[in-house]
């Protein structure tokens, strides 16, 4: 049994048309499609999807849907189901032709560390990666707040489609920020997505069932955990310029705790 990827494409295509309209097909911006390993679990409520903020420079994109969503186009601009997707992270771990070595990235160190713990050395075959922002500058940098707001509704719909299709048990957002005092969370990146998944329409902010500190020197830095039916949302900081080992270990410990059946509220 395999995932019916055509169904995912059918859901995503009109949403990316909307994103193109949001951006007026700006040539300085680049669309992004999620990537998955070819052994991502088939059954519902299984597996891990990691979410970052946005691509910081990305050459695999074009507003031409015939190329971007192609099944076999050899162009570097093809975004859909690329031949090397996810495996490229491992291939570029220590060296690469373009100079981007993934082992220098705290983001990829967290993802590889967590994934290797549960899936072994071929971790890239079993997990998926996406970004909450599907459009970003094609040179480098995150989208502006204006672009973030302009594309927010369609970004949310794409994320919902991704989660509905893949049905992961663990949704790991590595997207929040922290002010320089290391006490005040910068949450606007992630808030709209959490609210869209968990809000019951009463206008109240969804609350995590537990929070786990992982940086001994900065106890206000915490991972938040939410329950979404049979799924778990693990919300944490973007790892850039942060310690990798304690952050990675905290995520691993949370997943292991949940797998062992520890009741909500006991994760601290």
Give structural notes:
The chain is an alpha/beta fold and 268 residues long. The chain has a single domain (5-260), classed as Uracil-DNA Glycosylase, subunit E, CATH 3.40.470. Helices cover 32% and strands 17% of the residues. It contains seven helices and ten strands. The strands form two sheets. Strands 2, 3, 4, 6, 7, 8, 9 and 10 form an eight-stranded mixed β-sheet that branches. Helix 1 (5-23) runs antiparallel to helix 5 (145-166), helix 4 (106-119) packs parallel to helix 7 and helix 5 (145-166) runs parallel beside helix 6 (191-198). It is globular and about 50 Å long. The model has no long low-confidence stretch (mean pLDDT 90).
User: What spatial form do the alpha-carbon principal axes imply?
Assistant: globular
CATH uppermost class: Alpha Beta
Number of domains: 1
Q: What is the N-to-C order of secondary-structure elements (H for helix, E for strand)?
A: HEEEHHHEEHEEHEEEH
Task: Give the number of DSSP strands.
Answer: 10
Low-confidence stretches: none
What brief labels describe this structure?
268 residues; 7 helices; 32% helix; Uracil-DNA Glycosylase, subunit E; globular; alpha/beta; two-stranded antiparallel sheet; eight-stranded mixed beta sheet
